[in-house]
Amino acid sequence: MSTSLPPQIAEKLKFNGGLIPAIAQDAKSHEVLMMAWMNEAALAQTLTTGQATYWSRSRNEIWVKGATSGHTQKVISIALDCDGDTLLLQVEQIGAACHTGERTCFHQPLPLKAQA
Amino acid sequence: MSTSLPPQIAEKLKFNGGLIPAIAQDAKSHEVLMMAWMNEAALAQTLTTGQATYWSRSRNEIWVKGATSGHTQKVISIALDCDGDTLLLQVEQIGAACHTGERTCFHQPLPLKAQA
Which pTM does this prediction carry? Predict the structure, then answer.
């Protein structure tokens, strides 16, 4: 398994503290499912395997999404943003993206017009 | 203009180094437009004004999206993710979200199956 990126890709990317945020969007429903982090090895593994693979900041290890839950993400495409510091993955999500069992991780609405 | 959050909102949020990533999604087309950062004051201003307001890490200042370009984002709704460390905004985007003139910032595809 390659843990480094081709130079022509690596030179476009701005890792911050070795990490880059990666947004996963459902390729069919277009729901934003989650945001997680990748290091170079996680992105290299994602590109070579086509399975979304992140860096767990809490466990300090490579994390193949769904490796234990079965809720994997098959990557359809990846795009880098204009300044090279954020990734957007289009994925086929098996089951729930969120560890709570919710379809997406973004399930807590915040009230607009809230006053302190 | 309030620069702090109501306690019942603040207690749900995990800022990292004073910042939280905020993903902006087009409420109609469902395109993911950009990811930027908010500090507490930027989020408080977003919630009270309904206009997406970020923290510019390069300029070290509050940044009302579109204040100079006219490409504002009217916020339709905001959701917090399961672990309280990422925001998702549904917005009405006026004009281009990206400073390059592209509709979204995510316009550089990365090749899958890339080998180093």
Answer: 0.95
